[in-house]
UniProtKB/TrEMBL annotation:
It is found in: Cytoplasm. The lineage of its organism: Bacteria, Bacillati, Bacillota, Bacilli, Bacillales. One of its GO terms (biological process) is sister chromatid cohesion. NCBIfam families: SMC_prok_B. Residues 520-639 form the SMC hinge domain. It comes from the Bacteria. Its main location: cytoplasm. Homodimer. Residues 167-310, 360-398, 448-475, 681-841 form a coiled coil. ATP binds at residues 32-39. Keywords: ATP-binding, Coiled coil, Cytoplasm, DNA-binding, Nucleotide-binding. Belongs to the SMC family. This is Chromosome partition protein Smc. Required for chromosome condensation and partitioning. The gene is smc.
Length: 1188
């Protein structure tokens, strides 16, 4: 067996995936400090099961994950795989090749795999145990191991020999045995303490148990006598209560008849009140009409006076308005004509003024030009013209010089091109190939990066899918467990329902007989026949109590048959409700009317449950007289309203009994009752169906996730395989690219002078051409400037001549035009004022015209729409007659109202007296009702006492116990028994069972104490055996290592002598180990007196001695020869090479001598900051290449 391959990704500085191929023999790993060589050792140590982050040079396990660099982000996972060749089947697995993988996430989660199958860390440790590769084996030797030998004391150095002897596992077992021994002693002490306490408890418990037995005997006697007394009292009270109820029934019927008569009279009075109200409404309507008629009469009388006044002056006003309107219209037309003429005249004046003003400005411009200024300007322009001519000549000369320089540069360039033509052609070819190769390389590099990114994404997606799959699978298993719980619960409820569990013995027997058709006309127990809403379950359960198990039958015959069957089969007792004979119980309507308005009133118990119409009679019988309220406070208030005649139950199960007594508090919590069983079964069935449906859908989702993971894994394998081929192709392309780059650089070096000259030629040519082009533009611009100046000089010369000829004439013309302009400006100003005055007058006249028109229209409209005086007089007369009639009607209706009011008051007095007599009758009924309720409460209290204290119904008590012949004497016996029980004091009924339990425990603990004493002796014997085995193994292994050390020391030092000595040979379990060495040519001396190199080589000799005693399949040596000089390094390396025939060596080294003896050489570099890479060389192949 040997180490075949190491694969790693994300481990410490190995950010990228690496593969390190190992061969039998010696593999050396070299590289500068900090490049990551020792990370390979840490990776191997980690996979073999190392759990200490400190041993891996970290503070916590997450530190081994790649932390990122300047150019790379940190990774979230580290993974290392060791591939071992197992052809010799040294490892206990039936595989020729075994891969062991360990993975850790930044979250702290870890995964372990053997041959890609998930496993535990313990499985990996067990796999390598006794194979020479375990954590305690010498398969990895670092500088720390050498330092441990050199610097440790003799007693501490013993640990190395214990590891080699395999004693450490016995030491650990011994520690566990000692820990168990301490636990056993502690348990023994605890047991003895408990036994001591129990011994103190047994005697008092025995006394308490005897007292409890005496109490039970007295309690049975009390039960028998008190039940007999209660039977007698209940029968007596029930008889009195029944008689009173019969009397109440008759009086209540009489009360209803009286109330009916009163209600009829009240209805007649109400009708009379309504008629009286209608009469009042009629009177109010007549009064309103009278008011309206009076107002209209006054209005028309005023209107008549106004009409007379306006008719008298109509003609005069109309003529005046028409005359004013006509005069205003004529004046408006005149002003419109004047405004048009004046606006036209103003426009003509403005045009003439503008023309004159332009003429004045033109003449002023001509006269303001000075003759001397014109002459000076002409001289300046001539000077400027001469300067431009000189500049033009200079630029033309510069342009000719530039043309000559360009011809010279072109000639020199042609001669240079001819000289270097071959090299230029070669460079052009290489440049083309280089660019083409570079383009292909960059393209492939991008594709390679894309594939790497794709693989990274696939891995992330795979991890995500696996995580989701694991989470989904966990949820699915939880779903399975929950479904099994629901199924179990459902089956239990169904069994309870089928077996009628929870029912009284007799009831259960009858219901089963009904199912087996042994009894007929049995409809079922009340609890089976009603449907109770969830919010009322507690209340209805308290209402019914044991009555919920009363059995509903068709008639009395069916009930008698069932009772006879129970007697015959001796199956207990039951209460039956024959539908043909039971009486319904209700609450009176007047009482319902009172409580219905109360906010806390929920309803009547019988109305809150659902049942078939055929069974409603039985429900009303049991619950028709029970009120349900929201809270206990509401129940008290409702009880006051109903005179405490009815039982009131709250939604929480508290009860206000007839008569005012209350019961309530915290009841015992029940997981399931008869009232909730069917609902629980239905809910569980629905929930089960829903969960099964969701679980099936979730199973499909999990299967789909599993398929997705398989697809991603398959795609990932394909992409990784493709990436490997791409990596090889990219490496080849990189080599070609680098080769062309070197050739091109060589040619460029040879053509550097040519390139410099050519660059200079091009630069000079460009500068000259640029200057030539600039000169051409400048010459063109100068020509244009010269032509412009010449033109301006000619114009100024002509102006100067013309000015001298026309100066006096222009001055006279200017004066004439200025005078004319001033006159025109004054005329325009006057004309504008005149026009504005006409506009203002026109606006005022238009407003006056509109006013005349409006007043005239109003006057004509009034004259056309006016009524005649005769019409108004007729209307006034009509209204006066109507007013008189209305006043007479009002007087008549007021008289009628007075008579009806008097009659209504008389009848109300009669009805009030009748109501008073009725209330007295009701009060008498209520007094009897209260008395009946008190008897009912007393009866209920006796029944409750019977039910609560002895858990027995009255019917069963009557059948089971004998009625007291002398109630008073029985009552005295009951009193005496209660006193005897009180004299016993506090009775601990649990003392009987507690005494039995403590006695049993005392016996059990006594046996346990004996077992612990025996176990203690056994552990002492086991520890002695392990000590003997450790001494034996240590002695044998030390002797073998001592012999091998003497041999190996001579081989490594080339002579000399060395030996190992025990500091205390008689105490092999604790003795230390001294190392005595004598290098060639020196005296025998202690290890501490040797030089640093000698000490290191001696320690290495000891380690090799241990390896020879306990060989391992492979050994990792991490810079163990760092302290040796070159000569010792060569001897060390040759020894490693020689011993590599038996053990595979992986050596981390800096030393040349060690490298020379290696079969394969790996270089670790850090080209990119913080990221390690590997370069491999097989030295055997290198030698063959050198020879060829």
């Amino acid at each position: 067996m040997y180490l075949k391959r190491l694969e790693s990704v994300g481990f410490k500085s190995f950010a990228e995936r690496i593969k390190v191929e190992f061969v039998p023999g010696v593999t050396a790993v070299v590289g500068p400090n900090g490049s990551g060589k020792s990370n390979i050792t840490d990776a191997i140590r980690w996979v073999l099961g190392e759990q200490s982050a400190k041993s891996l040079r970290g503070s916590k396990m997450e530190d081994i994950i790649f932390q990122g660099s300047d150019s790379r982000k940190a990774l979230n996972v580290a993974e290392v795989t060791l591939v071992l060749d197992n052809h010799d089947s040294k490892l206990p697995l039936d595989y020729a090749e075994i891969s062991v993988t360990r993975r850790v996430y930044r979250s702290g989660d870890s995964e372990f795999y053997i041959n890609k199958q998930s496993c535990r860390l313990k499985d990996i440790i067990d796999l390598f145990m006794d194979s020479g590769l375990g954590r305690e084996a010498f398969s990895i030797i670092s500088q720390g191991k050498v330092e441990e030998i050199l610097s440790s004391k003799a007693e501490e150095r013993r640990t190395i020999f214990e590891e080699a002897a395999g004693v450490l596992k016995y030491k650990q077992r011994k520690k566990k045995a000692e820990y168990k021994l301490a636990e056993t002693q502690e348990n023994l002490n605890r047991v003895e303490d408990i036994i001591h306490e129990i011994e103190q408890q047994i005697d008092p418990l025995k006394e308490q148990a005897e007292t409890a037995k005496k109490y039970l005997k007295l309690r049975d006697q009390l039960k028998e006598n008190e039940i007999s007394y209660l039977i007698s009292e209940i029968e007596t009270v029930h008889k009195q209560w029944q008689t009173l109820l019969n009397e109440l029934e008759k009086e209540k019927i009489e009360e209803i008849n009286r109330k009916t008569v009163i209600q009829k009279k009240e209805a007649a009075l109400e009708n009379e009140r309504e008629n009286l109200l209608k009469l009042d409404t009629s009177i109010e309507t007549l009064q309103s009409n009278l008011l309206t008629t009076t107002q209209q009469l006054e209005k028309y009388e005023g209107k008549k006076q106004l009409l007379n006044e306006k008719t008298k002056h109509f003609a005069e006003n109309k003529q005046k308005l028409e005359s004013g309107k006509q005069d205003t219209a004529v004046r408006i037309d005149q002003l419109h004509a004047e405004l048009v003429n004046e606006k036209k005249h103003l426009t003509d004046l403005l045009a003439l003024k503008l023309k004159n003003k332009q003429k004045v400005e033109e003449l002023e411009s001509k006269l303001t030009t000075d003759q001397e200024n014109i002459a000076g300007t002409i001289e300046e322009m001539k000077s400027e013209y001469i300067e431009y001519l000189n500049e033009q000549a200079a630029k033309r000369n510069e342009k000719q010089s530039i043309d000559q320089q360009l011809q010279q540069i072109s000639g020199r360039k042609d001669r240079q091109d001819e000289k270097f033509q071959d090299l230029v052609v070669q460079r052009e070819g290489l440049t083309y190939k280089f660019n083409e190769t570079k383009s292909g390389f960059l393209s492939k590099q991008r594709r390679y990066a894309e594939k790497e990114s794709l693989i990274k994404q696939l891995k992330q997606k795979l991890e995500q899918e696996r995580s989701q799959f694991q989470e989904s699978q966990t949820k699915l298993y939880q779903g399975y467990q929950y479904i099994e719980k629901l199924k179990s619960r459902k089956e239990m409820l169904e069994e309870m329902k089928e077996d009628f569990q929870g029912f009284f013995f007799g009831v259960k027997a009858v219901l089963k007989a009904r199912e087996e058709s042994k009894l007929q006309q049995i409809h079922g127990a009340i609890i089976e026949l009603i449907d109770v809403p969830k919010e009322y379950i507690t209340a209805i359960e308290m209402v019914l109590g044991g009555q919920a198990q009363h059995i509903v039958v068709t008639d009395d015959q069916a009930a008698r048959n069932a009772i006879a069957w129970l007697k015959k089969t001796n199956n207990g007792r039951a209460t039956f409700l024959p539908l043909s004979s039971i009486q319904e119980r209700f609450i009176m309507n007047n009482v319902l009317a009172k409580i219905d308005k109360h906010a806390g009133f929920v309803g009547i118990a019988s109305n809150l449950v659902g049942t078939k119409d055929s069974f409603q009679k039985a429900v009303n019988h049991l619950m028709g007289h029970v009120v349900i309220a929201k809270t206990l406070k509401d129940a008290n208030e409702i009880a006051s309203l109903v005179m405490r005649k009815y039982r009131i139950v709250t939604l929480d199960g508290d009860i206000v009994n007839p008569g005012g007594s209350m019961s309530g508090g915290a009841g015992k919590k029940k997981n399931q009752s008869l009232f909730t069983r069917d609902k629980d079964l239905q809910e569980i069935t629905e929930k089960l169906q829903d969960f099964e449906r969701r679980t099936n859908a979730f199973e499909q989702k999990v299967d789909h996730q599993k398929q997705q993971i398989s697809l991603i894994e398959e795609k990932l394998d394909q992409e990784e395989e493709s990436l490997s081929s791409w990596q090889q192709s990219l490496q080849e392309l990189r080599s070609s690219y680098k080769e062309l780059e070197m050739k091109l650089a060589s040619v460029n070096d040879n053509l550097s002078i040519y390139d410099q000259d050519k660059q200079q030629f091009n630069q000079d040519s460009e500068e000259l051409k640029h200057r030539d082009k600039a000169l051409t533009l400048e010459l063109k611009e100068l020509s244009q400037k010269l032509a412009s100046i010449e033109k301006k000089i000619n114009i100024l010369t002509n102006q100067e001549t013309e000015f001298k000829e026309n100066q006096d004439q222009l001055q006279q013309e200017l004066h004439t035009n200025q005078v004319s302009l001033a006159e025109l400006e004054e005329r325009v100003k006057n004309q504008q004022g005149k026009t504005n005055t006409i506009k203002l007058q026109l606006t005022e006249l238009q407003e006056q015209y509109d006013s005349y028109t409006s007043d005239l229209e109003d006057l004509i409209t009034f004259n056309r729409s006016k009524e005649t005086e005769e019409d108004i007089d007729h209307f006034i007369e009509t209204k006066r007659i109507g007013k008189s009639e209305l006043m007479n009607s009002i007087q008549t209706k007021r008289s009628e109202r007075s008579e009806r009011t008097q009659l209504l008051q008389d009848r109300e007095r009669e009805l009030k007296e009748e109501n008073k007599q009725h209330q007295l009758f009701i009060q008498a009924i209520q007094e009897k009702d209260v008395k009946a309720n008190r008897l009912d409460v007393e009866l209920e209290n006796w029944l409750t006492l019977l039910q609560n204290d002895y858990t027995i119904t009255f019917e069963k008590a009557k059948q089971t116990y004998k009625k007291a012949d002398n109630p008073e004497e029985t009552k005295a016996i009951v009193k005496q028994l209660k006193q005897s029980i009180e004299q016993l004091g506090a009775v601990n009924l649990g003392a009987i069972d507690e005494y039995d339990r403590v006695s049993e425990r005392y016996t059990f603990l006594t046996v346990q104490r004996n077992d612990l004493v025996e176990a203690k002796q056994t552990l002492y014997a086991v520890i002695a055996e392990m000590d003997e085995e450790m001494q034996k193994r240590f002695d044998i292994t030390f002797t073998q290592i001592k012999e091998e050390f003497a041999v190996v020391f001579k081989e490594l030092f080339g002579g000399g002598h060395a030996e190992l000595k025990l500091t205390d040979p008689k105490n092999l379990l604790d003795t230390g180990v001294e190392i005595i060495a004598q290098p060639p040519g020196k005296k025998l001396q202690h290890l501490g007196l040797l030089s640093g190199g000698e000490r290191a080589l001696t320690a290495i000799a000891l380690l090799f001695s241990i390896l020879r005693v306990r060989p391992v399949p492979f050994c990792v040596l991490d810079e163990v020869e760092a302290a040796l000089d070159e000569a010792n390094v060569v001897r060390f390396a040759k020894y490693v090479k020689l011993y590599s025939k038996h053990t595979q060596f992986i050596v981390i080294t800096h030393r040349k001598g060690t490298m020379e003896e290696a079969d394969v050489l790996y270089g670790v570099t850090m080209q990119e900051s913080g990221v390690s890479r590997l370069v491999s060389v097989r030295l055997e192949e290198t030698k063959e290449l050198i020879q060829t």
